[in-house]
Automatic annotation (TrEMBL):
Pfam families: Poly_export, SLBB. Coiled coil: none annotated. This is Polysaccharide biosynthesis/export family protein. Residues 143-195 form the Soluble ligand binding domain. Residues 44-138 form the Polysaccharide export protein N-terminal domain. Keywords: Membrane, Signal, Transmembrane, Transmembrane helix. It comes from the Bacteria. Gene3D superfamilies: wza like domain. The chain crosses the membrane at residues 237-255. Residues 1-22 form the signal peptide.
């Protein structure tokens, strides 16, 4: 093997080192989905109310005039006006898990699902109104997706129910450089931050506590080895390769 061939081979190996080979197991989602049985709890999932949740609570009844004390705002500034909803009274769950509800006073809702909170409010309000109806919604339900996705950002969720895969879809999906087997989910549980790893290439995460996201969850998609290597070389990689190619040509000409 002559010197010219050795130089060209070295240049080829260097260029190849900038590229990392990937296989289907690194890219495809839910690869073993046919072998996974969905648990009943997935279909019945409801998020739990948390501290700092902003709630809309409206009481209705057959005699609307009886609901006025429960729906009347204390001050005009307590109204939230957005998304074509005019004058909705809002309630912020405080640091201890309580809201201050008209007539009833303090009532603890943090830690309850939406259905449980409605049942609790119904039990309190029916002491004053016959057959009341309670409508409750979380107004500030949001999640954030950061890292190696097409459109990172914070997204407001109107349905109060979103899966991890749907959240990734809202962010435009992972880029080809995102690690699908090690997504970080940051979640607050009982006032403490927890850090959890999710592998979306394996379908069994559908039955995990992380399939459905909770309000204020943050997803962080880490870069894979190819992206890390590219960042180490930097944006000047094409210039480096061109320079080495030119240098190889000059050396070959000199040694002829």
């Amino acid at each position: 093997m002559n010197f010219k061939t050795i130089l060209r081979a070295g240049l080829f190996v260097f260029a190849l080192s900038l590229v990392s080979c990937a296989s289907r197991k690194d890219i495809a989602y839910l690869q073993n989905v046919d072998a996974v049985t969905t648990q009943n709890g997935v279909a019945n999932y409801e998020p739990k109310l948390q501290n700092d949740d902003l709630l809309s609570i409206i009481v209705s009844a057959d005699q609307p005039e009886l609901t006025i004390p429960f729906n009347m705002p204390q001050i005009q500034g307590n109204y939230q006006i957005n998304e074509n909803q005019d004058g909705i009274k809002t309630y912020l769950i405080d640091a201890y898990g309580y809201i201050e509800f008209p007539v009833i006073g303090k009532i603890k809702l943090a830690g309850l699902t939406r259905s449980e909170a409605i049942a609790k409010l119904h039990g309190e309000v029916k002491e004053y109104i016959t057959n009341p109806t309670i409508n409750l919604r979380i107004l500030n339900y949001k999640i954030s997706v950061l890292g190696e996705v097409v459109r990172p950002g914070t997204f407001k969720i109107s349905s109060e129910r979103i899966t991890l895969l749907e959240a990734l879809g809202m962010a435009g999906d992972l880029t080809i450089y995102g690690k699908r087997d090690n997504i970080l989910l940051i979640r607050e549980v009982e006032g403490k931050m927890t850090y959890n790893r999710v592998d979306v290439t394996q379908a069994d995460f559908i039955n995990s506590p992380y399939y459905f996201l909770k309000q204020n969850d943050v997803l962080v998609v880490e870069p894979n080895k190819t992206r890390v290597n590219a960042s180490a070389v930097g944006p000047n990689a094409p210039v480096i390769i061109s320079s080495l190619s030119l240098l190889t040509t000059i050396i070959v000409l000199l040694v002829r």
